[in-house]
What does this fold into?
Amino acid sequence: MRKPKIVILGAGYGGLMTAVRLQKLVGVNEADIVLINKNDYHYETTWLHEASAGTLHHDRVRYDIKNVIDTNKIEFIQDAAVEIQMEEKKVILENGEVAYDYLVVALGAEPETFGIKGLKEYAFSIVNVDSARQIRNHIEYQFATYNTDADKKPERLSIVVGGAGFTGIEFLGELSNRVPELCKEYDVDFHDVRMICVEAAPMVLPGFDPELVEYAVSQLEKKGVEFRIGTAIKECTPEGIIVAKGENEVEEIKAATVVWAAGVRGNSIIEKSGIEAMRGRVKVDPDLRVPGSDNVFIIGDCSLIINEEINRPYPPTAQIAMQQGELCARNLAALIRDKGELETFTPDIKGTVCSLGEDDAIGVAFGKKMVGGKASFMKKMIDNRALYMIGGPSLVFKKGKFNIL
Ligand code: FAD
Ligand code: NAD
It folds into this structure.
């Protein structure tokens, strides 16, 4: 009898977790498993703000996929998915196509630009290793060039961060640590540098604990970050951004660097493939399958899970993507063995910690609020745990964060 073929798209938190769990659960004689990813490496999306600011080298945030999968059990294909053809049960890749019996879509997120003019052309986003390297190099180039300009343009050293959600705040935490180093390295006066965070909502980290938010704002302000709250970016230009405050107030902020960190959407392949979605995120069935499909699972940032308590979607996180990956692997094993009912997914949210740089953070974990070194320690433990869950102790030793206070 022909073995069923399981294809996993994306080797991020969700996809790689599914793969490493499947290789333990399913024997080589039970299924062919194929993992497809753009790069031959996995990157820790949750560490990209560090690589973008330049406080952590980009090689520290990635590792070879073949180091964590069993290549006797999983065939790895380095290629980019272009379209999913659910009726034909195949995926079109940049360099060919692959047929499947079961599919797991774990292609992650893309920046949501809300159609704001100029963002795609002139702003950077923290998306992957390539974009992180580009942001770091671009900022460094501005510092390197500043003293060579005859008129020392102040906007060269102005860095705008759009959005004070978790990504924006974590990036500012790293950036505000990196800027003094850059000033020293390139003989720049710290007072010539501006780090401006523009947030449309009336508060930083909307919806998060106000006491913790106050701590974060005060810590970042001490390190030179200016907050423009209740101010929305309306346009991005080659010179900087146009913002609106209230109904009539419009202002231009000149800046050579604009980092857009104001929200994400699911991978555009979802919509391109004609799968019904809200901003690229599919409201999956409780067993994580696409409604109406018995063989396609969608997990991670491309999926949408409703928090029934508040009737709103859970924010997409690595925490949820990994938990979905574990359950998805179990459900796939049950399907290929024809073993009754599939399990249903309920996120187990252990907490949220937002880093404010190397040695500072805010967070709520296991119901307890924490700030400073304690929260930062917790954040590093969470980062190390993610490595452990995928690659065991050896990956933690290779890539883990041990610079603990
Ligand atoms: P990802 O982990 O992003 O993986 C997607 C994978 O798909 C990547 O390997 C990518 O290369 C690949 N891929 C993309 N397109 C294609 C294609 N066309 N073909 C083939 N492969 C493709 N969440 C937390 O829980 N805690 C945190 O502290 C946290 N911090 C964050 C910090 C930052 C700076 C950012 C940006 C996000 C953070 N998040 C955090 C959110 C978290 O990173 C995401 O929710 C999580 O990565 C989603 O997992 P995923 O598997 O869906 O996608
Ligand atoms: P987000 O949606 O959480 O935050 C985006 C912010 O941008 C919001 O505060 C929003 O009001 C603001 N915004 C939107 N449009 C704007 C505009 N035109 N001008 C100015 N501000 C604007 O997005 P994110 O921070 O990228 O996070 C994406 C996901 O990743 C979330 O689910 C988040 O929870 C998760 N994440 C988690 C962590 C963590 O747990 N430490 C870190 C980073 C990201």
Observations:
- Residues 9-15, 36-39, 42, 45-46, 48-49, 80-81, 106-108, 126, 128, 167, 170, 267, 269, 300-301, 316-319, 321 surround flavin-adenine dinucleotide (ligand 1) (CB under 6 Å).
